[in-house]
Amino acid sequence: MARRAETIELAVLGLLHEGPMHGYELRKRLNLMLGWGRVLSYGSLYPTLKKMLRASLIEESLATKTPGTPVSKRPRITYQVTEAGTREFERLMSEVGPTAWEDDNFDIRFAFFSSTDMEIRLRVLEGRRTRLQERLDRVQTQLSITQKEVDRYAAELQRHGVESVEREVEWLSELINAERNGTPHHQSQTTAPVAPPIRPPATPAADQKL
To answer: Distance between CA atoms of 162 and 111, rounded to whole angstroms?
Structure first.
């Protein structure tokens, strides 16, 4: 849970760099970033916001009421990043160790890659690719053994997991080459923003992190 809270904190700091936001808007944007199967509740978001307020990473203000707003209606709270929050965001985004390669943390960091320089981006992308290649080798070995012990549907789900990791490794390789060549990755394929591939659910017979 502590690691999840740290991931949410990084995402909040990144989003508030775009400008002040209400809690509702923050939750909506965070859910879009976290992707399917990881819906963020207010019960998870607001404790993180309170912690960040105590640490002076963000600050809150009451939105000005517009004419015609009922007196009984509570004013909406807007959150914005502080100078301390900006420094913390820059520190977190400059990290290039194993934490930056983990599934949830990598996705959030990737969403804010424009805030980092090329050297940091390359080290994170290469670290993520190495981690996935190691995972892929391990799971492929397990797959060749367990296929004899499971029915065809379980085996098909395992193969789907392996193929998903193989696609992400290929995607990472393309991003790394684009960074080294100084060419935006999306220009060679599509004008739409690049997003990390959706990961399949874990299977008991395969790596639990797949």
So the answer is: 24
CA distance 52 to 99: 20
* Terminal alpha carbon distance of the chain: 19
pLDDT tens digit string along 53-96?
999 999 998 866 555 655 556 778 999 999 999 999 999 999 99
Q: What is the pTM of this model?
A: 0.73
> The CATH number of the domain where 8 resides is what?
1.10.10.10
- Distance (Å) of CA 17 to CA 6, 10, 78, 160: 17, 11, 13, 37
Cα–Cα distance measured from residue 203 to residue 153, given in angstroms and rounded to the nearest whole number: 11
Q: What angle do CA 116, 36, 76 make, to 5 degrees?
A: 75
Contacts of 59 (CB under 8 A, 6+ apart): 53, 79, 80, 82
C-alpha–C-alpha distance, residues 82 and 16, integer Å: 9
Give the residue numbers spanning the domain of 48: 2-63+76-94
Q: Is position 29 within any domain?
A: yes
